[in-house]
Amino acid sequence: MERLQKVIANSGYCSRRKAEELIAQGKVCVNGNVVTEMGTKVSGNDEILVEGKSIDLDSVSYVYYLLNKPRGIISSSKDEHNRKTVVDLIETEKRIYPIGRLDYDTTGLILLTNDGDFANFLMHPNNNIKKTYLAKIEGILDKKAIDQLKRGVVIDDRKVGVVDFKVRKKDVDKNTSLVEVTIVEGRNHIVKRLFQKLGYDVIRLTRTGYGELGLGTLQSGEYRELTIKEVKKFYGNKK
Question: Which residues are the active-site residues?
Answer without folding.
Answer: 103
